[in-house]
Task: structure prediction
Amino acid sequence: MRLFATASLLALTLAGCARTTDRTAPATPAAPAPQASRQIPTQLPADVRPLQYTINATPDAARLRFKGRVDIDIEVLKPTYFISLNAAELDFIDVSLSGGESGARIPARKFLVDNDKQIATIRFGNESAPGRYRLTIDYSGKIYTQAAGLFALDYETAQGKKRALFTQFEAPDARR
Result:
């Protein structure tokens, strides 16, 4: 179960940070999309680029919660005071940045989650110079009972009720 959850969350995180572009023009003009009551951005600032993710997640299916830790190797392309990433309905426990010229571990000074935009912004106090770093985040989240993010479905067997965990790997739900 732990291996499945880890692989699922890895794919979710990668999907949440993935960017897609359409390089071909449509043959006919598309009808305008209906206006949503809330616009959620799909692009993050380009000052920081993720290189590799290492994710460890531990689900607690009985309590419908999970704990996770992600180490994201990043490349800072332009000096920046903050790092933004996709996040929705997650509780950040500890966030730090290490590497760069000093190699020191720098705890986050502040992290804010904009639930409407589904973006977490992490500020470390000092400007990060261009270079490679490791962003480490300890967090927890909810396991849903509807098909969103990581979700649980209960089913009956001859031995009694069982619970399975699933995800659909949809990019918007990867933020959860």
